[in-house]
Amino acid sequence: MEKGIKKLFYGIKMTWKRVILFAIIAGVFTALMAMLVPSGNSFHEIAVSLEAWILFAIIIITNCESPKEAALKTFVFFLISQPLVYLIQVPFSWQGFGLFRYYKYWFFLTLLTLPGAYIGWYIKKDNALSAVILSVMTVLLLYLGIGYFKDMLQHFPNHLVSMIFCFAQVPLFICGIFDSKKTKWLAAVISIAAVIIFIVISFISPKSSMDQITGFSLDQEKYPVDSSWTVSVENEKISTAEIVDMGDGEYFLRVRLLEPDPNVVILKDGDGKEYRLIISYNQNEGLIVQDETTGS
Questions:
Q1: Using an 8 Å Cβ cutoff, are 23 and 191 in contact?
Q2: 71, 164, 207, 269: which sits with the fewest CB atoms below 10 Å from its CB?
Q3: DSSP secondary structure, 104-141, as one string
Q4: Domains identified in the chain and CATH numbers
């Protein structure tokens, strides 16, 4: 088992051909998860969150021979995979190429991989500095895992797999990358201390309520809105919505988000036909809209 883990981090010849193939596979898989899996499900998270991409980056970094190689190959991996995620979705999305407005977040992260992977390569040195560098990733994973744990308690079993995936990567990295017991213990202590700090902060910090106005223009081909249309939501404690006439036949769905949790917006035309949209909010993507129209 341990040998298999070591091979994952040190036994792959990370050629340029493999990096590009890895990027294409990751991009295609992520796009499929984004399109086929509903928001809030663990397998959808790869499209909006970092935990899987941290694993991908660590695999590339540890299988490179120099910090420069790690930086360039990790950068190219993200430069190919992330735009591909959105490009594949374009023909199937009502937003079309407008989806690429979400890419700016990932492009910023892509740029950060150059210095990040260069520094990250030094985890291979298996010393105290290595433990500190790796702890940046393990602490982030623990932070994400605790967030998923909180969401899971409210919407079980949503995010259960994501929570386990985040927490499981911490011992995987510590045991799979380091050989020195001192390095392992230092990395573990930093990670445990971070968990304690996160838990303490979550108890002493007051819960902030969300109140954000957002929305989007309604596609007239898909939603032929006129003055007879009405709008309602299933849970007004989560969000509210209204149709705004912008003039010249353009209508805007204005949404007031009180909580980031998913809610159903029901558009109804003058004949009583319903159009159901599931809306939710993610700090990386912003407002997320899924068409769940069931018909008349």
A1: no
A2: 207
A3: HHHHHHHHHHHHHHHHHGGGGG-SHHHHHHHHHHHHHH
A4: 2-204 (no CATH), 212-291 (2.60.40)
